[in-house]
Amino acid sequence: MQIPYTTEPRPDTGLYNAKVGLWLFLASEVMLFGGMFSAYVLLRVGAPEGLWPRGWLSVPLGTLNTMVLIASSISATMAWAALKLNQFPRYKLYHGITLLLAVLFLGVKAFEYSDKLSHYWIETKSGQFVDGHLVSRTADKVVVHGVQTDNRAVLFDRTRKEYQQLPHTEITVAASDIQRISNYAPKLNTWMGLYWAITGLHALHLIGGILVFGYLWGPGSGMWKRDPARFTNRVEIAGLYWHFVDLVWVFVFPVLYLF
């Protein structure tokens, strides 16, 4: 018994089964990410004046990853178009490019995460705020390479002239003088919690897409010989999901990196 509407469109929706299922799934994904963006907006509006982080992320890295994902969307579309034109070798080429670009995005994101985990915020009992990358840490002292100020707001807005004029030096803080110390993990503050939650969830969706693309590029591509129309539809569905993942990043980039 053959399942109907796996390749031909349904008369009631004009779509084949998989595409109907994908649109329903993406609708739930819109609500998921929409809820997270709404939470971000509400928490930002309610934050005390001058204590919402700005300039904490690398805009060049964010821009690079944006261009990488846009290019991967183009190559995913070209892979599907190659199958529609019955050009299987070109499909393999374009889908391989998509996979490489996706892995590149994750590599850049992993570098960014690593940088955050080695970046420390220290509040001292003497009223100083120290921010920088960890050099060494012992039971007696913590050494970071960064900046020091008695004005917390200066460290929150790194686009301010006051922050840019702070000297970047190696700073030693005695363990007995530390009131609070944390790396740039979710526990640091609300903004970092949102950053890790939103970008981490997006990265998980990206990994899911890579697994699907990898299967369709490798062992799953054998379906092309048995049922090319159905295989083409599978590639199209995977591509639509990938476009959604890219679209989410188009919103993440300006919200977190630019504003």
Describe it:
With 259 residues, the protein is α+β, with helices and mostly antiparallel strands. The chain folds into 2 domains: 21-115 and 188-258, Cytochrome c oxidase, subunit III, four-helix bundle (Four Helix Bundle (Hemerythrin (Met), subunit A)); 117-183, SH3 type barrels (Roll), CATH 2.30.30.100. The chain contains 8 helices and 5 strands. It has helices spanning 17-46, 59-84, 88-117, 152-156, 161-164, 190-217, 223-226, 228-258, and strands spanning 119-124, 129-137, 141-149, 169-174, 178-183. It has a 5-stranded antiparallel beta sheet with strand order 4-3-2-1-5. Helix 1 packs parallel to helix 8. The chain is elongated and about 75 Å long. The model has no long low-confidence stretch (mean pLDDT 92).
**What is the strand content?**
5-15%
Class from secondary-structure proportions: alpha+beta
Order of helices and strands: HHHEEEHHEEHHH
Number of strands: 5
User: Average pLDDT value?
Assistant: 92
CATH superfamily of the largest domain: Cytochrome c oxidase, subunit III, four-helix bundle
Assigned CATH architecture of the largest domain: Up-down Bundle
User: How many domains?
Assistant: 2
CATH topology of the largest domain: Four Helix Bundle (Hemerythrin (Met), subunit A)
